[in-house]
TrEMBL record:
Solcar repeat residues: 6-86, 91-188, 198-283
One Pfam family in the UniProt entry: Mito_carr
UniProt-recorded Gene Ontology molecular function terms: transmembrane transporter activity
Location relative to the cell: Mitochondrion membrane
Transmembrane segments: 58-80, 92-114, 172-190, 202-221
Coiled-coil regions listed: none
Keyword Ion transport (UniProt): no
Record family assignment: Belongs to the mitochondrial carrier (TC 2.A.29) family.
Membrane topology designation: Multi-pass membrane protein
Key words of the record: Membrane, Mitochondrion, Repeat, Transmembrane, Transmembrane helix, Transport
Organism from which the protein derives: Rotaria socialis
Protein name (database record): Mitochondrial carrier protein
Gene3D superfamilies documented for this protein: Mitochondrial carrier domain (1.50.40.10)
Transmembrane in keyword set: yes
Length: 292
């Protein structure tokens, strides 16, 4: 379990660095409303962030997910491997979906406050010139300050854990699709249906494919989560109230907003996350077997 956690941690760091700029664009597009549109689309958002906030603008709030996502990845791969013990044949699509769902459920309780911080830091200082990670005005100094202020204003349940229900609704199906999608790719694109026989470039393609499939299944819940976590504290009764109002005001299209940058983000993020984990696991497992 310790090795699984370590492998997941390393893969999480590499995946976060690779895909974070696309995540910032995704969140910006998700949270804008029809009455207050700052960006006409994904490309316009990329250009404006680069011009107005410099390249560093794409990495706002990355300190929180950098280590948070790394820890979450470690938890996901550890829980998923432990959960395989529930099945006689843990490599069937059904078994992988169930173990993935269990892992997604467990990690949501850690992921939710991390993403609350990430979302709020990504949203502050929009359009401001950014130099040496300093903004002329800001609501939060850093991730710790964001968590502290959220707790002071609304407490633990409604402040720090704001959006937990949508995180669960997103991550349970996301990880339930993630592991079977990777297995599907390995079975059909590996010479003999095993990870160890896949070339590095095919592993990267497989990771990207896995991410796209997983996000396609769960994306509407991610939109609701991001918008609710970024909204004013007392603007809505709860996350469901926010979802209903968003649908009535902006139609079903609101739940697809930002999907393109999310897909683009999934390519580099997952292209590194799963293959890096698999590579480390195969390398160290082989080394340990040789030393026995």
């Amino acid at each position: 379990m310790a090795l699984d956690f370590g492998f997941g941690f390393v893969s999480g760091v590499t995946g976060t660095i690779a895909g974070y700029p696309f995540d910032t664009v995704k969140v910006r597009l998700q949270t804008q409303t029809l009455n207050h549109r700052l960006y006409s689309g994904s490309l316009d958002c990329f250009i404006k962030i680069a011009k107005q906030e410099s390249i560093l603008g794409f990495y706002k709030g990355m300190a929180s997910p950098m280590f948070g996502v790394a820890i979450i990845n470690g938890i996901v791969f550890s829980i998923q491997n432990i959960s395989k013990g529930l099945f006689d044949n843990p490599d069937t699509y059904f078994s992988l979906a169930v173990t993935g769902a269990i892992a997604g459920c467990v990690q949501s309780f850690i992921c939710s406050p991390i993403e609350l911080v990430k979302t709020r830091l990504q949203m502050q200082g929009i359009g401001q010139q950014r130099k040496l990670f300093a903004l002329s005005t800001h609501l939060y100094k850093d991730p710790i300050d964001c968590i502290k202020e959220s707790y002071i204003r609304q407490g633990f349940q409604y402040g720090v854990m704001r959006g937990l229900s949508m995180t669960l609704a997103r991550d349970i199906p996301l990880f339930a699709a993630n592991f079977p999608a990777w297995q599907f790719f390995v079975l059909y694109f590996s010479p003999i249906g095993k990870e160890a026989d896949m070339s590095m470039h095919m592993s990267l393609v497989g990771g990207a494919f896995t991410g796209i499939v997983a996000w396609a299944v769960s994306y509407p819940f991610d939109v609701i989560k991001s918008r609710y976590q970024a909204a004013r504290d007392h603007a809505y009764k709860n996350v469901w109230d926010y979802a209903v109002r968003s649908f009535r005001m902006e139609g079903w299209q609101v739940f697809t907003r930002g999907f393109l940058p999310c897909t683009l983000r999934a390519i580099p993020t997952n292209a590194f996350t799963y293959p890096v984990y698999s590579f480390l696991k195969q390398t160290f497992d082989t080394t340990l077997d040789d030393n026995v």
